[in-house]
Amino acid sequence: MRLLISIPLLLLLVGCADIGYYWHSARGHLDLMNQRVDIDELLVDDKLDSNLRARLLLVQDIRRFSIERLHLPANGSYNNYVDLPRPYVIQNLFAAPEFSTRLHQWCYAVIGCASYRGYYDEARLLDYVEELHSQGLEVHVGQVPAYSTLGWFDDPVLSSFIDWPDYRLAGLLFHELTHQQIYLDDDTTFNESLASAVQQVGTVLWLKANNQLEAQDEFKRWLVYRDQAIALIVSTRGELDSIYASDITDAAKRMRKAEQFQQARSAHDSIASRHGVGAGFKTWFADGLNNAKIGSVAAYNSRLNAFVRILDALATDFPAFYRYAEKLSALDRATRNQCLDAWEQDIKPNKETCPITL
Questions:
Q1: CB neighbour list of residue 299: distance below 8 Å, 6 or more residues apart
Q2: How many domains does the chain fold into?
Q3: Does 204 fall in a domain?
Q4: pLDDT tens per residue across span 236-287
Q5: CA-to-CA separations, 215 to 66, 209, 282, 340, in angstroms, rounded
């Protein structure tokens, strides 16, 4: 009922030019919500697949931990299950100009602006990709296994991620639930970095609580690899920005851009080999690089270390962390970034660098 009421209200808030996109989004989400089956009902079915039963029981354990230790929302999210016909629920579109890594922004009713546009319908997505290409924009499409409705609806567990390794499954749920805890309109970097910090620290705490020593070691190795891979992407973005800001010709910019992408691919191969990682970002790098792809990862993770350091300074007191994040979110963007810059540099902010304290 809540969804059915929201659809006409949403359509009243948007312009005619976007009504087709919003209607497609509403239909896609409605179809997903209509497929939900209560996990408790599934668990009493004697015919339920034994592997799925074990995974759903694990989800319930993760959900309890998210409420009791991480103080994430105790609501109806992840109490239902949906079996999808594909390995992702939605595809996210990112776009950027030929000579910029600054992502294109789309603005939406209710949630504000974001640097991506989600699609359930692949045909509609491909039509829009063609339109963006005709405007000279570079495009990256990422397949998304889960998303948050920010607490507006009871988000379900999906077949697209139910069989992930335990620590990845736990981390994903912690990440999406954090979006329900705190979400700042028009600041994708803040939202994603904050959720990634809770995901990272929460996963370590959950593994320790469950005495999964081998998984702890695996996760720590993954974090080292991931940090180095993301640092490479961020540094590549910086090099590209320098190239684009230079006075050289467009032809020279294109040549140096291609060289930079090749260097990034080679550098990642070395990082992956050093850490013995078989998957990770390997396919991501190999499938081709462009400004939109580089910008999507760099923007999503650039404040992760700042939020992790805040959590460490608060001795993983999550309620205190959320209160501080709320104070940060109330600041204007420039001041908020100044505060996060201080934390990023591992300098505990004072009144000169940040107007709020722990």
A1: 103, 115, 188, 189, 192
A2: 2
A3: no
A4: 999 999 999 999 999 999 999 999 999 999 999 999 988 876 667 888 998 8
A5: 18, 12, 21, 31
